[in-house]
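Q: Okay, next protein. This is Recombination protein RecT from Marinobacterium lutimaris. I've checked the sequence twice, so it should be correct. Can you predict the 3D structure?
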Amino acid sequence: MAKQPTQQATVPDATLLKMIDSTVTKFENSVLDFEKEKVFAYGALNQNDLLLQYAVKNPTSLKLAMYNVASIGLSLNPVTKLAYLIPRRVSQVAKVVLDISYQGLIEIATQAGSIKACSVTLVREKDLETFEWRDNFTPPKNPPNPFVKDKGKIVGGYCQALLPDGQFILHAMTIEEIEKRRDASEMVKSRGVCGPWRDWREEMIQKTIVKSAAKWWPSNGSSVLAEAQRILNEENGEGLPPEERVINGNVVKPTAPAELPPPPPRDEMSEKLASYVDRAVDRAEQLEAWQTCEDHLIERFQDLHQRSYALHVLRNRQTAFEESNKDSAVA
């Protein structure tokens, strides 16, 4: 005979169902079907005791999480593995949050037309025996073989996206860079390496790479990808406010021009460095991703003379681009 629920158990269930129902109007302009998402949300609550516990303690957080589901447009259907309701402590507050997987971030970018396809590859110690990284616009030689086992520890990874114009854009991160971002997140600073970073480490590494790579993808006029990143970074405690950066493990503001020496002339830079800067700035102009390129160059060049040169090239190009667009608008 099935066990009958106690009165104590049915009261919070009814309260939470009412809280979910109160979000129905937010789905009126969403691509998602509210009735289906309600079933997925209630199923998640019934299958995760800690999630249910946090929802009972903080029902408003459940409501806000459902608002985010509607605005982002990723289904809670567990089969798709795009988004989930999960329990999390942020700033010592127990709450329900919408978690977006790295597959979910890719799906958002694909729907927006920012990219046509994307893959994330982890690189391990033994892969380095044959693996050869080229640059941010050319796929690597001898990529890791996914069918080889016992390849050692993860040393980093890269995201490879196919843009609508048929070009590739790649973004690589070492494990040290990934862990610096992990350690700078509010979640890890307040509780240590726990939760998803302990239980789903590879998934979180892949998500970190995609989050960093996505800054280089064209928005195509869609704000959904930026909103998804904001939810992960700010509401879920996974990252930093957008005005902050992580450099050498420290949370800092972007380098001000006054902190840098005068930019050296191009002929004092190596051809390899100058070519790298040219390609990065070309891509920044194509995507109008000036701030993203600046962040990348600051992190890439720790030598202040090299950094000064790179930022000088970037700012000159940005100024010329904006002046050209201004003249076109007047004409």
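A: Here is a summary of the prediction. The CA atoms of residues 57 and 94 lie 8 Å apart. The beta strands are 83-90, 93-100, 117-124, 154-162, 168-174, 245-247, 250-252.
Q: Noted. On to the next one.
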